[in-house]
Structures are given as C-alpha cells and as structure tokens.
Amino acid sequence: MRLVKIGVASVNATVGAVRSNVDRCIRLATAMAEDDVTLAVFPEQVVGGYAAEDLVQWQAFVDSQRRELERFAAETARLRTVFALGLTVGVEGDLFNVGALVHGGKILAFVPKEKLPTYNVFYESRVFSRGMPHMDREARGVFCGDRIFQFDFGIVAIEVCEDIWSPDGPMRRRAYSDAEIVCNLSASPFRAGIGGTRREMIATRAADNQCTIAYANLVGGNDGLVFDGGGFVNQNGRPMLEATRFREGYAATVVDLDRTVRSRREASTWRSDLETFRREQEPVPAQVVHEKTADRAKLRYPAPPPGTSFFLPSASLPAKTPRDELLDDFHDALALGVADYYRKIGAFRRIGLALSGGRDSLLTLLIAHRAAELLHPELEGAARREAAGKMISAFYMPSRYSSDATQNAAARICADLGVSFMVVPIEDAFVRELEATRTLLGPGGPEPTELTKQNVQARIRGQRMWNWSNTSGALFLQTGNMSEKALGYTTVGGDLEGAFSVIANLPKTVVIAMLERLEKRFGYPGIRATLETTAGPELAANQSGEAELMPFEVLDACLYLYGAEKLAPNEVALALTSVFPDRDPAILTAWAEKFARLFTQSIFKWVQSPLAIHLGSLDLDRERALQLPVVQRTEWKGE
C-alpha cells in the first residue's frame, strides 16, 4: 500500500483582498497539516479572488499576489504538507492564470491554465495568455510551464479549472507521463444542476486517464457570481470524497496510490493509448522534489462509508428528490450571493425592500432573511433568526389598487420573520404626480395613458426606496423575476430599481416552486397567504400578470425555447404544441409571436437593471450570459 491523504479546500475569497484571502488559506493549511494531510488543494485564483477581470491589468495587483504567495510559503514552511493554490502571475508580456505548487517554504513551480473559457460568464482570454504543452518559462526565478512533480509519496500534476472540462486537456499528456494525482484548482460558479455535472465529468476524466483527481472549488459570492464550493476526490473513476457545498472549509480522504498503478496495468485499452502517445509525443518533464513530505505512518486504508460495503452502496433512500435538491440549491446560492455582496462591499448597514404582498418580493424577503442569518455565524437558532430579522426593513406602499389580501400577506410574513414592516401609502403622491404629468403635456395635451398611470405608482415606490436607502445606508434589493423582466413587464425607474437584483434570473414558475418548497421547509403562514392571492402588480383594477401576458408555464417555455435553445418564433410555436398538446395551436402561435416581439423590444429595459445573481446559462445579464444588442431589427425572424 502507498497511502496518501488528500485535502480539498473551499475558500471564500474576495477580489482584491489578497492579504485576507491568504490569511484564510493559511488557517486552512494549518488545519489540514494538523490532520495529517499529505497534499492540500486550494481553489483557482484564491489569492487575488475571482473573477478579477480587468483588475489584473494593474501591475500592483499582480505583484501583490506574488508577495502574498511568498508569505504563504514562509508561514507554512514548518508544515510538511504539499500545497497547490491559484493566482495570477506575470511573465514579460504575458499574464497567466496559474496553479502554484508550494512545499517546505518554497514556491516550486507555476503551472498555467491552458483552456481559457470565453463564453457565458467567462472572459479569460481577454486578460490571460494560454499555457502551452512543454512550455518552459521563468517567473522571477520560479519555473512557469508544463511539468509534473515527483514527491516521496507519488507523482503530482497541477491544472486549473477549465482544463478538466476538455477531454483533450493537459491531464491526458500528464497522466501518460506518469502523473498519478491530478490537482484541479477551480473557480466554478453555481448554476442549476452543476453538482451532478461536475461529479459525472470528474469520474469520467479519472477513469479515462486512470488517475486520481483532487478537485477544489471556490466558495462565496463575488458580484453576480456565486461559487458553491465543495470538492471531489475520485480515484480511477471511483468516488472517494465529495465535500459539502456552500461553506468554507476543507474535507480530506485517504487513497492508496498503488491502486492507481494497478488499475493502469489492468486497463489494456489505456496502455494501448499510452503506447501511441509514447510513439508520437514527448512526455511531460518531471521535477523531482527531494524534501520530505508529511508523515503518512498514521494513515489508515480507506474503508467504505458506514452502511455500505466494498460491494454494495447504502440501502437508504435519498433524503431529497432531485427537484427539492435543486430548489434548495437555489435558496443557498441566492442567500450566499446576497450575504457576500453585503459583507464584501462593506458599505451597507442593513437590508431593505419594497414588499408588495406578491410572490416575487416575498421570495426576495425570504432569501434576504437567510442571507442576514449567514451574516451572523456566531449565533444559532432563535438568536440568529432574531438578529437577521432586525437587519431588514420592508415597506408596503399601497395605492388605490392595492388589496387587503396583499397587505395582510405582507404583514403576516414580516411577523413570521421578525422583520420591520411599515405601511407608507402613495395615493396622495400618485395624484400629485399625475397632475404634474398633465402639466408637462401642456394645455389641451393628451391625458396620461393607463400604462403611464401604472408606471407612476411603481416609480414613486422606487424613488422612495432609494431615498430611504441613501439615508439609512441600506442595501436596497430589487425584486423582479426573470420571466417578467424578459418581456419588459416592469417599470424603468420603478420596480426595476435597486442596488442588487436577487431573483432576476429565476423564471416565474421557479419562483412559485421555491415558495412552495420554503413553505414546506419552514411552515411560515405568510407564504401561504401570499400564494393565495392573484399574481399581479396591482397597478390597475383586478390586474393579473397571466391575463396580460400569457400563462406563466407557457411564458417560461417560450423563454427557454427562444432564449436558451435559440429557436425562431415559428419554431417556438411548433415546439409549444408538443409541450402543451391540450392547448389550441393557434393560441400557442400567437403567444410565441408575442413573446419574441416583447423580448426584443424590452432589451433596452433589462440592460438597465441592477447587477443580478448568476444561476444558469440563460441569465438576462448583458455583461455575463446572454449578450444581445439593444438596437436590432427582427427581419431575420421572417416577419
């Protein structure tokens, strides 16, 4: 047996907080060393924070990361654990996103990332240069390039995030060059279903390359990105460790590297591919590290988890359905995003929102309350809930169209959560603003339209929230959902306002599903009270969002088919007949055409919305996922 203990760390790094980030790494490094960890893997860009974007163009920012890495090396010099952690390194005209290998107080090498993503939320090739096979550069006296590293316990390779997502990444040639453990340093943002996708991908890579993969991921919110942390150790396709997500810390497990060697000898197809590699390519050079690593005498052979055996998995059923797991992931990701936005900016003293008694603002409030709990990690139970409630102010601002049902629902949930609730009517201001609008239109001018009358109410509320937040130093949360934002069913200067948008990338059907899930989990009567009201903005008499737009399930299907699948309107209409076979095809066609028209006409609105939390590949965020021109014509649709 050749036992090795591998640790994977999730660190909540903040962009630019190089000293604090490294302090966090040192604390975790010390804890892992005390836990007899042989090899510890930290996330991508953990020193400088991710995503730094154009901040890496400041030389002082890049230099500070090297300085802090040297401090990490010095302060961990007495530890025998081998550490891998990520940062930015400059070499002449290049900036590289690297994994650094540190041991015994020395920076042994930098290994640059080769696969630079420039899609969805990523812009890495804008600022970074690619690592290349067999690259051999020097960064102020430290090797920077393509190597593997031979320690007294085995041979290690380093790679960074996207490198693992390509089957033709650097892992292949490094594994063929005898690397046994591949350390992947990642900053992989949360998105729907990503946990299972990572698990399957890592298992595939470990099996294809007959190696042990140690995968560490960043945790925490930065701007609109939320990193869900967690980590994996997978040996030759066999899962050995899956770390808890959405929390800072580390997890570790023991592997027998002799098993990796034996698996390679048994895998005839792998050996055949290895022979081809040896004929056609040069192996990656190995750097021999002579310093002793952590004592492995206390390590014990990895036993199956309790309730399982070497031959049988656990007989217990999953605690959650896949649907509930996804909804809970959304809740965790959104709360972490709000909490870290609040904490890391450091400009806010409390949290506030306009609470309408409707579904969207209710979900935003529930997420804000959970975020406020995360901001009080020193408290538990009732004390934590009470402290969270005291951080939040909710305002109900009724006009003539507001109903008793929504006011009662808003008051009920605030009582459930211990949140400050204030009723501030806008009727008088509404009348005055309509008169001012008539004055602007001039004598004999047109009467303000019904749509204008609706927007006036929303704008009064938005202005009041800004005025309150300016004085109170509060983080003003915007509460709109993705479906209505996509069609411009929102008011610029009104309900589109806020400093941070919480649920702007959640479709309406998911908003409702999350509320039903949270009611089941927490039992707050205010959730049920809200779900029993009519879904609508209450800006006109008897207003219903579905009546004015289309049924939410159809709207969200159009959003997916048009925005994610990139179907033309006539193709969307055809697909809808399969999704909703019981509905009239002519009506479905009309809805598909309406969706496409309103979507295109509303881009100018949603590009003005606040920064929003990234949740998937379809986010309506022009700086992140779905980048569309504001000015465009739609002749290509065949209109």
Can you describe what's shown?
With 639 residues, the protein is α/β, with parallel strands linked by helices. Helix 1 (18-34) links the parallel strand 1 and strand 2 (39-41). The longest helix has 24 residues, at 322-345. A seven-stranded mixed sheet has the order 15-14-11-10-9-8-17. Strands 5-4-3-2-1-16 form a six-stranded mixed sheet. Helix content is 41%, strand content 18%. It is built from 21 helices and 22 strands. InterPro entries: C-N_Hydrolase, C-N_Hydrolase_sf, Gln-dep_NAD_synthase, NAD/GMP_synthase, NAD_synthase, Rossmann-like_a/b/a_fold. This is Glutamine-dependent NAD(+) synthetase. One of its GO terms (cellular component) is cytoplasm. L-glutamine binds at residues 119, 188. Its EC number is 6.3.5.1.
Q: Count of helical segments?
A: 21
| Low confidence ranges | none
Number of distinct beta strands: 22
Distance between the termini: 70 Å
Q: Radius of gyration from the CA trace?
A: 27 Å
Shape call: elongated
Mean pLDDT: 95
| Portion in strands | 15-25%
Structural class comes to alpha/beta
Helix proportion range:
40-55%
Quick one: biggest sheet? 7 strands, mixed
User: What is the strand arrangement across the widest sheet?
Assistant: 15-14-11-10-9-8-17
GO molecular function: ATP binding; glutaminase activity; NAD+ synthase (glutamine-hydrolyzing) activity; NAD+ synthase activity
Enzyme class: ligase
Catalytic activity: deamido-NAD(+) + L-glutamine + ATP + H2O = L-glutamate + AMP + diphosphate + NAD(+) + H(+)
InterPro entries: C-N_Hydrolase (IPR003010), C-N_Hydrolase_sf (IPR036526), Gln-dep_NAD_synthase (IPR014445), NAD/GMP_synthase (IPR022310), NAD_synthase (IPR003694), Rossmann-like_a/b/a_fold (IPR014729)
